[in-house]
């Protein structure tokens, strides 16, 4: 598993393109073979929401061997 953060700019931008809004919506409602998990945590005084999207489809990524 890879945790992706915006400070890994090139890979992050590739993921933004791959996981576009339509794809994300399909994953959230279960109409995709990709996995989705949502955690909501209370961190006084904030509420933090984490969303996890997972796929085994990495054909699109040019550095997949790395």
Number of helices: 2
Give the DSSP E fraction (strand runs of 2 or more residues).
25-35%
Query: In percent, how helical is the residue content?
Result: 25-40%
For the largest beta sheet, what order do the strands appear in spatially?
A: 1-2
- Which overall shape is indicated by the principal axes computed on the Cα atoms? globular
- What's the SSE pattern? HHEE
User: How many strand segments?
Assistant: 2
CA(first)-CA(last) distance: 14 Å
Question: Residue ranges: pLDDT <50 for 5 or more in a row?
Answer: none
> Radius of gyration, Cα only, in angstroms?
14 Å
Class from secondary-structure proportions: alpha+beta
Mean pLDDT over the full residue set: 78
Major sheet attributes: 2 strands, antiparallel
Structure description:
There is one protein chain. A two-stranded antiparallel sheet has the order 1-2. The protein has helices spanning 9-18, 21-28; strands spanning 35-43, 46-54. The chain has two helices and two strands. Strand 1 and strand 2 form a beta hairpin. The protein is an alpha+beta fold.
